[in-house]
Known about the structure:
Substrate binds at residues 209-211, 254-256, 310, 369-372. Homodimer. ATP binds at residues 89, 155-156, 180-183. The protein is 35% helix and 16% strand. The protein is α/β, with parallel strands linked by helices. It has two domains: 65-220 and 376-419, 3-Layer(aba) Sandwich (Rossmann fold), CATH 3.40.50.450; 224-372 and 427-454, Phosphofructokinase domain (Rossmann fold), CATH 3.40.50. The strands form four sheets. Strands 3-4-17-16-10-9-6-7-8 form a nine-stranded mixed β-sheet, with helices on both faces. Strands 12-13-11-14 form a four-stranded parallel β-sheet, sandwiched between helices. β12 (274-276), α9 (290-301) and β13 form a beta-alpha-beta unit. The protein is elongated. The chain starts with 10 loop residues before the first strand and ends in an 8-residue tail after the last helix. The protein binds adenosine-5'-triphosphate, 6-O-phosphono-beta-D-fructofuranose (F6P) and magnesium ion. The site of 6-O-phosphono-beta-D-fructofuranose (F6P) has 11 residues, from loops.
Amino acid sequence: MTLYLDDLRVRRLGECRYDSPFSEMLSTKQTSPHYVSEGDRVLLEDTVSMLAEHDLPPGRVPSFEAAGPRRKIYFDPDRVTAGIVTCGGLCPGLNNVIRGLVQELTVHYRVKRILGFRNGLKGLTAEHRNDTVELTFDRVRDIHNVGGTILGSSRGGQDADEMVDSLVMRGVDIMFVIGGDGGMRAATFLSDAIKARGLDIAVVGVPKTIDNDLPFTDQSFGFQSAFARATDFISSVSVEAAASPNGVGIVKLMGRHSGFIASYAALAANGADIVLVPEIPFALGGPDGLLAHVEKHVRAKGFVVIVVAEGAGQDLIEKHGLPQHNGRGTDASGNVKLGNIGEFLKEAINAHLTAVGLAPTMRYLDPSYAIRSIAANAYDAVYCLRLAHAAVHAAMAGRTEVAVARWRRRFVHVPLSLMTSRRNQVDPDGDLWMSVLETTCQPAQFGTAAGREAVRPAAFSA
Length: 462
Ligand SMILES: Nc1ncnc2c1ncn2[C@@H]1O[C@H](COP(=O)(O)OP(=O)(O)OP(=O)(O)O)[C@@H](O)[C@H]1O
Ligand SMILES: O=P(O)(O)OC[C@H]1O[C@](O)(CO)[C@@H](O)[C@@H]1O
Ligand SMILES: [Mg+2]
C-alpha cells in the first residue's frame, strides 16, 4: 500500500481559539533531536532508499503530524466533558492509560467532568449508557499498580448511531477509545456516525493489544510487560525439560495472527530451540519437518524447548488434528476461534518420539491470561503515561478520527482508518525473525513448500 501525504492528514474539528495551558512553555520550543515542534512533521519512512523511491520534495514526503501540546486549543476546558472506554482483550497498562488521561485532563487542562463507560463499548449502548463512573484524579490515583481495567472490557459489536446517541445524551465532547484493531474499527464507525450528524465530538484512539498486531506503532503498550512475563514460563519449561528423560518443553503464547510475543519472549529467554509463529507455515513430517528436528535435539542434548504462538500451524490442525483441538466459529467480535496448537503439538511430538524409541517427558504450559492480566512494568508505565498525554493534547486541540502512537521513536497522530488498514506481523524476511533464527539455530523453514502440503505425520496417519 503506497501512502501519500494526504492519506496521513488528521481531521480537525475547527480553528483552535483558546490559549492552551502549555502555551507559555511552548513559546521558545523548536524542533531538535528530542522534540518535534507543532509545525513540523515526522517521516513515515526512515531509509534513504525508501525516500528516494518517492522522489518528492521534502514538503510532500509522506509524514505524520507530531503529537504533543499545542499553543492554541479547540475546546474550552471549562465546558468539556470527556469519556473513556476500554475494549477487547486485556493488556498490561490499561489502568495506566486511564490514570494518565484523567491526570492530564484534570491537572493541566482543568477539565471537570470525565465519564468512564463500563464494560467496553457495550457501555455506550442505550441499556448501559447511564451506568458510568465519574473519574476524578482521587478515584484513579492508585489504579496503575494493578492489571486489568477498572472500567471493565468486552467483545461484541454495537450500533454506531446508538453509541452516538449516548455521547449526545451524556454531553460528551471528547471520547477516548482504548482498544485493539476491533476497538479502532469501532472508533472509526463511531467517528463516521458523528461526522454524518455534523456533531462537534472528538474521537481519539489509544491503540492497545498484547499481540502487537496494530500497524503504524513501533510496539503497542503492554506488549513489553507481557512478553517479559512470558519469559518466566519459557524458563520454567526449560528447567523441567532439561531435568527430565527425553524432555520436551512447550510453551504456547498468545498471538492470533502475529508471532511477536513468541519471538520476543524466546529471544529474551534465549533458551528456546524452536519458535513457531503464524506468519511462517511449517510441516510436521518428512526429513526436514518439525518432528525430525525435535527428534534431533532430543538425541543430541536430551531435551528440546519449543515456543509456539497460538495462531501457528492452524492449517495442520485443520488437516490432521483431533476434533477437540479444532477451532470453532468466531467470538462475539468476529475474531476466529483458533484450534489448540499447543495440545496438537504435544500429542504429535509425544507420538513421534515414542514411535522412534525416545519415550518423552512432556512439559506443556499455556500461560495465556497470566501474561496479559499483569500490571505494566516500568517501561510500559512510562509509555502508557506518554501516550495518555499525547491523546489528551490531540483531543483538546480538536483532532479527531485519530489515534496516538509512537512511530520510529516519536509520538505521532495517525488517522484512525489507517490503524485497521493492515496488520502488523513478523516479517519472515525481516531482522526480528533473522534474530530468532540466529538465536535458536532452527532452519528458516520446516519442510519444503511442497513437503508441507504432501507429508502426513506418522502420528496422525489414518
Ligand atoms: N466489525 C466491527 N464492527 C463494529 N464494532 C466492532 C467491530 N469489531 C470490533 N468492534 C468493537 O470493538 C470492540 C473490541 O473488539 P475486539 O473484541 O475485536 O477487541 P480488540 O479491540 O481488537 O482488542 P484485542 O485484539 O486486543 O483483544 C468490540 O467489543 C466491539 O465493540
Ligand atoms: O479469551 P479472549 O478474551 O477472547 O482473548 C484471547 C485473545 O485476546 C488476545 O490476547 C488479543 O486479541 C489474543 O492474543 C487472544 O487470542
Ligand atoms: Mg483484535
